[in-house]
TrEMBL record:
Protein name in the entry: Interleukin-17 receptor C
InterPro entries (alphabetical): IL-17_rcpt-like, IL-17_rcpt_C/E_N, SEFIR_dom
GO terms classed as biological process: inflammatory response
TM spans (from-to): 455-475
GO cellular component labels: plasma membrane
Amino acid sequence: MPVPWFLLSLALGRSPMVLSLEKLMGPQDTARCSPVSLGHWEDGDVLCLPGSIVSAPGPVLVPTRLQTELVLRCYQETDCDLCVRVAIHLAVHGHWEEPKDEDKFGRAADPELEEPRNAFLQAQVVLSFQAYPTARCVLLEVQVPAALVQPGQSVGSVVFDCFEAALGAEVRIWSYTQPRYQKELNFTQQLPALPWLNVSADGDDVYLVLDVSEEQRFGLSLYWNQIQGPTKPWWHRNLTGPQTITLNHTDLFPCLCIQVWPLEPDSVRTSVCPFREDPRAHRNLWRAARLQLLPPRGWRLDAPCSLLAEATLCWQAPGGGPCQSLVPPLYQANVTVNKTLELPLLNAHPNLCVQVSSWEKLQLQECLWADSLRALKDDLLLVETRGLQDNRSLCALEPSGCTPLLSKASTVRTSGPSSMYLSGSISNLASNFQFLLCARPYDGLWVFGDVHQRWALVWLACLLLASVLFLLFLFRKDHVKGWLRLLKEDLRAGAAATARAALLLYSAEDSGFERLVGALASALCQLPLQVTVDLWSRRELSAQGPLAWFHAQRRQTLQEGGVVVLLFSPGAVALCHEWLQDAASASASASAPHGPHDAFAASLSCVLPDFLQGRAPGRYVGAYFDGLLHSGAVPALFRSVPVFSLPSQLPDFLGTLQGPGAPGPGRLGERAKQVSRALQPTLDQLLQALGDPGGPGGGTRDGT
């Protein structure tokens, strides 16, 4: 690729010796020999495989030394490429067979035996050249008169012009013969880099110093060189003269490259990637990587650059122990980033997770149960292995390893307090297998649960429940009658009006606040309400993005006559103030500091216009939790709709949520007590973690 003359002059220096590099005019490659003869040479369809070493049948020509020289291949007088000339020095390996004893004592030599000495030694010499991202192979046929051959003697050299390479590139050269009689020669050389580009660090800042002449105008671009996809531009400027570009250390990635070119018509761009081996860049890459599990059986690894990593399935048993890897890996080669891949599953299970490791170090892990409120199941995983002759064997995955199941009954201890007695025969276990998880050519994964034991427990629980209800009916007839009357009222109200939809929005500040929101949502589901919250829709949220997910849920909720509930917290209040004060800074803060599942941050761009234009009353309701916030902390704009304190104002809150179909005050009070009992323990736990033992009366956590 032609390189502007000013770049070559900067890179090669200004000394007369360097600037007097030999110029080769034209694009043609050439080869010459001295004093050996060159038959012909090939380029293009040459197979670059050395093959195995074979024994020499006699004297053969082999390469003994590689020598390189920098030259310029020029298409015009000032439009040249840096090129590498390679010289291969050849010598004779092996020797002629000695004459037999009778020839030594005067017997006339056979003329046919002398014929090889009058022929030529020929060799096919392969020259392989690699300079990322290009590679070439050249096949050279050389010959030398056999009469001039002496074992171990140098017979001359072959010179090839030439292999093009970029400034600053590392080139690797190999040479060997076909067939190969000895170990191939190899040579590595670092070509001159661009001395006008210097990278230095000072604390958290990284400086790109470009030292060019005052009048030189050039373009500069920073981009991510993604091997598995097109380059992704990041920063571009047209500059003049010396410049210093400042980057933060968090901006560094291994694939971050710098491209420069003169601002001239049809100019050629030169690139350099200085952070490929930088440890900070590799740490930043893993911090930016995101692992997602997508419905129904997809997964995706997003990262700015390609990753040298391995992905595996693992089994997470209850109890908090390490996730046990299941072999073989999902992909033997490197994981493809920024592309949705499919898990080899026939059915999903909440205990299954995906791990991504690099150099045997766990970097990322995502589990199926994390996208919902489902808990880990106390199930047992059986691993079925099939041999080459379809021989099958089973083992039970335990924390200590995989316990083989022999032909006789085996005892396997699960994560619970009891043990299971299993037989290694698949036919004996077939009635207890719940479903097949994973199928590969030679192995399978099965989840086992004692079905008979579970049905017995279910029947026992039903009998106990019936006994308790019967006793309550005998001892508290009046209370039971009142309860039946209230239940009848609920059924009538439900027949008159269907359950109202409610969309909960909150700022995901920490796991404790998320648990509190989850407790509220679960309690509201016990009422005639259709509750939607992002905690229960993580997969859809990850697949669609927070903004698109909120748009769809908000439109559906309002079309059905539902209500959007804004749950205010200190973080949510701060975010609202940022949006109200400066829309530009708020947009940045909504996309960066908050997590990928934070629908509240993404929804502010749609929620605020409803309040500013007076469309919020009847469609929105506000709420905050006692002890975490007080009513004065809620921004004035949002007080145009009812704002309730929970759980102290739960009856009014529930009445507003249920709308015209809400029951009477007595029934609302009963429901408020049920919700409060479900909510208060989680709220107390959060307040205690925040250092507020006083509970609802002990102050606020909004910093005001």
